Amino acid sequence: MIGDWTYRFKSRFVCDESDSPVEVHQATQIVPPRSMNLKPIDLPLNKDLGEAGCVFQSAVVLCNLLTDRDHALYQYMNSEKKVVEVGSGTGVLGLASAAVGARVCMTDLPHVLDQLRGNFQLYCSNNPLGDELRMRCSVEQLTWGCESDAARIGKADLILCSDCLYREETHRSLLDTLKALSADHTLTVLSFEIRRPPIEAHFIEQTRESFEVEQFFQKGDDDHHIQLYYLRPK
C-alpha cells in the first residue's frame, strides 16, 4: 500500500494438459481506492525492456498526488490542460491521469511504443471508460534531445517525468527535451527513487540552469527513498 493506491505483483501459471506449468505471466497491478470507482491498471512485466518494462514506487506515489482532489496537481486533471508524460515506460502515470479526466500524451522511445500501446489498449478493453480514454489519450514517439519529436508533440501545461534518471549519459538530452516541451507557464513534476545519490544530485543541479527547482515531497524507509520536485522555467 502506497497512499490510497495498492501496488501488487501478480503471477499467473499457464499449464499443459497434464497440469504442469509451461508458462508464467507476470504483471504489476495498480489498484485505485474503491471510492474512485476505477478499474485496476494491469501492466504485464516485460523484462526485455529493462527499467522501461517495470513500475517503480515513485510512480505510484505520484499517482496518489495526481488523483487527490485536494492536491494542487489535480487542477491539471481535465481536458482543458495538456499533460505530457516523458519516458512513460508502462504508462501507469498517463493511464491514471486519463482515468480521472486528464488529456494525456504518453511518450517513449520507438522500441518501447509497442508495450505502451499494448498497455493502453489493455486498460481500455472491458472498461466502461474505454471510449473516453481513447479520446483523451495518445501515444507518441519522443526521443530525448530530438527537436523534431518535441516540436511535433508541442508545449505542455504539465510534464510528468518519473524514474527517468537511470542513465547518466541521457541526462542532458532529457533536460533539453523538458525545455523544448515547456512554455512559460509549464509545470514539470520530477519523481525518482534515490539509487545513486551523487548522480541524482548532479542532475538536480543541472536543472537549476534553466528551471526554478522546488522539492515538495520526500519519503524514506529502509528500502526506498523517494523524492519529488517541481520544475518551473526561469
Automatic annotation (TrEMBL):
It comes from the Eukaryota. This is Calmodulin-lysine N-methyltransferase. InterPro entries: Methyltransf_16, SAM-dependent_MTases_sf. Gene3D superfamilies: Vaccinia Virus protein VP39. Pfam families: Methyltransf_16.
